[in-house]
Design goal:
By secondary structure, this protein is mainly beta. Helices cover about 10% and strands about 50% of the residues. The protein contains four helices and 26 strands. A hairpin with a 4-residue loop joins strand 23 and strand 24. The radius of gyration is 21 Å and the shape is globular. The two termini are about 40 Å apart.
Length: about 400
């Protein structure tokens, strides 16, 4: 039997899903070494991103409290629920950990990048953070961070610094009572904490520059090219006027920087949300006064304000809609937001680009409490060398 050249074997393996590759590690030592090699992992990731764009292979994950799944105490259990954009391969993974004997009070996703999730788990005595890959179901417990009890989380994200092959997480907290006596945010002090994967530690950062931004309405993180982005506004200290900006977290210098200001159509009177669609930053815009529907725009050239392009309009939509991913060339998977623009409804929608129609896409996940959906690509990125199982 003729042996295939190594280049062809590598190419074939790089096309396979992570679940299969995890099994193929056991075929032989050379295959195990190849699949575990960081260069192969990055090559597989690049191909996964290419395949997922405009394809039916996008994956979705949400975290919430599952009805009907009870611990012995009678409390509802928190779970991670994932599926692909076709609604197939649905799976519920209960969040449990040996470090905590009591039930989980709250769980949330702080950020995602390259198929890896940063998850915050709060229990009655304390809290913990984990890095988790839903494709391989491998996780790593990382040190928890500590903040004053009078501060609340306003934004978070996870990014990848490619030059050092290092993942970094960022969380920003603000006082629970943000408004000053003048009704402005000028004297507000934000607390930023940064997680460094290589050092496996959190670093606190108090910087006056953060006070120039208001993060309080920036729930939505959009990760492009491994960098997390948010929409914030800057306060003019003279007249307290607001200017909306898209900022990103510089992973190398560990500070926030302005990418661009919002275009003319992204005015204060509109309800808008930042996201990612087709590997580009996108914004869904709903005018508070107009019945024209929801406009979806994409920044075709990263960092260039003039490159915003209107992709499509969802007509007659009176609620906040947020595109999650394309389904082929004809459809877009849409999430419906509540009035505060913070959480999603239980089900998703599908918008047909050619027919301009919406239809329901039921998730059937039976959540009594639920949070945002996140899209991700299936990857081999491992939380650590010796993984725990979740």
């Amino acid at each position: 039997m003729t042996t295939l050249p190594c280049e062809i074997v590598n190419d074939i393996l790089s096309c396979l899903p992570p679940k299969s590759l995890q099994r193929f590690k056991l075929v032989s030592k050379p295959w195990g070494s190849l699949i575990s090699d960081p260069n192969f992992v990055e090559s597989h990731l690049r191909r996964a991103y290419t395949i997922s764009q405009g394809d039916h292979n996008a994956n979705l994950l949400r975290v919430g409290q599952i009805g009907g799944i009870l611990y012995q105490s009678g409390d509802l259990g928190w779970a991670l629920y994932h599926m692909n954009s076709e609604g197939l391969n649905r799976k519920v993974v209960m969040i449990e950990h040996d470090d905590f004997a009591r039930c989980i009070d709250l769980a949330g996703i702080l950020g995602t990048c390259n198929g890896l999730f940063l998850v915050l788990i709060i229990t009655r005595p304390s809290k913990m953070c984990i890095l988790w890959n839903p494709s391989s179901r491998k996780c790593k417990t990382i040190p928890p961070y500590h903040v004053p009890s009078d501060m609340a989380l306003v934004i978070s994200g996870l990014g990848y610094e490619s030059s050092s092959r290092n993942y970094k997480g960022v969380v920003v907290y603000s006082p629970c009572t943000p408004w000053t006596s003048q009704g402005a945010y000028g004297n507000k002090e934000f607390l930023c904490l940064v997680y460094n994967y290589k050092n496996n530690s959190w670093t606190r950062k108090y910087e006056s520059d953060y006070d120039l931004f208001d993060f309080s309405h920036s729930w939505d993180v959009a990760t492009v090219n491994g960098v997390p982005h948010w929409c914030v506004f800057r306060i003019d200290q003279q007249n307290f006027s607001k200017t909306y900006l898209i900022v990103y977290f510089d992973l190398e210098n560990e500070n926030f920087k302005v990418l661009v200001g919002l275009p003319e159509w992204g005015i204060e009177e509109m309800k808008f949300h930042l996201g990612v669609l087709g590997d580009c930053l996108c914004m869904s815009v709903l005018s508070q006064e107009s019945l024209g529907g929801t406009e979806v725009w994409a920044m075709k050239e990263y960092g260039i304000s003039e490159s915003w392009m209107k992709l499509f309009v969802i007509p007659h939509s009176s609620t906040r809609l947020w595109p999650l991913c394309f389904r082929g060339k004809k459809e877009v998977l849409i999430a419906e937001l509540d009035e505060e623009g913070i959480t999603y409804s239980e089900n998703l929608l599908i918008f047909n680009l050619k027919e301009n129609t919406l239809r329901d896409f039921s998730t059937h996940d039976n959540y009594s409490r639920g949070f945002h959906f996140f899209t991700y690509v299936a990857s081999l990125v491992s939380p650590e060398e010796h993984e725990n199982q979740l």
